[in-house]
Structures are given as C-alpha cells and as structure tokens.
Specification:
Length: 168
Amino acid sequence: MGHEAGPSPVCVIDTNVLFDAVAGGILPDLFGLACVFLITDIAVREVRTIPLPDLLDLGLEVRELTGAQVLEMLELRGKNAPLSIADLSVLVLARQTGAVLLSGDGPLRTVARREGVEVHGILWVLDRLVAGGVLPGRRAAEVIGVMRQNGSRLPREECERRIRAWMR
C-alpha cells in the first residue's frame, strides 16, 4: 500500500487468518500492512498457540463487544446456526465498524457477504503484502506452498495462479 493520505483501513481478523500467517511464517509481515487490525475478546480466546502479548506487540487490538453487539450476535446466530460465537463476534464487529473482515472460513465468508460485509482471506493479504513491497513475490509464492503443506485449506487454482505470477 502506498503513502496515501487519510486513516489506515480497519480490518477485523478471524483466528484462521492468524493461524495461516503463522503456518506460512509471515505473522510479523501481516502486521506490516497499513491497516488497523482488530479482533474481538471472544475470538482472541481461540488463539492459544500464539501468546496474546506477542499479538498485542505486533499491533493487534482486542475489542470487547457492547451489549447491543452481543444481542445482534445472538440474533444472527438464530439465522446462521453453523457459525460459532467467535465467528459471529468478528462478523458483528466488522459490520458495525465498516471494516474489512479477514477470514478463510467458508460459511462465515458467505454470511458476511450476505450481510454486506467486505470479506477477504489470506491470499488477499498476500496480494497486499506483495503490492506494498512488504513481501517479495517469490517469498509469497513459497509461503503459499508452506501454508498448504501445513494444512491451510486454500483454493488450488487461485494459489497456482499467484505462484506462477510471483515466480516470474
């Protein structure tokens, strides 16, 4: 991202994007994006493999949901039973703050789009890291391979297209 004027965009991050970033060895790079990264106090409890102080040092901001947001979450739960409370919490926070939701969770992405929330996954993050000069293209291509080997469920065709482009 360039040096455009104005505030940094806000991204609400789901835990699976954090786990993918760890799997790819790019967690510090993720926070190199010109974004404000938010997560809910509910979702951050799912992150047991990454020490919370490390995430806070990188720039992650933990937000507590208001009573009204919790009620909205419960209302959404009635319509979207397969989503976890943590998923619903990041969806509500993204919707109420007008933020981009970063998630690789298929059902959450579907509901987010239906609710009018802009949603992207780890491949979009890699695109931004390469475009912003935070990560060289070749390194991003290697990261995709490492993430896939470490169990990240990424769309094969989209991965291969990026790898071809970045390895040129």
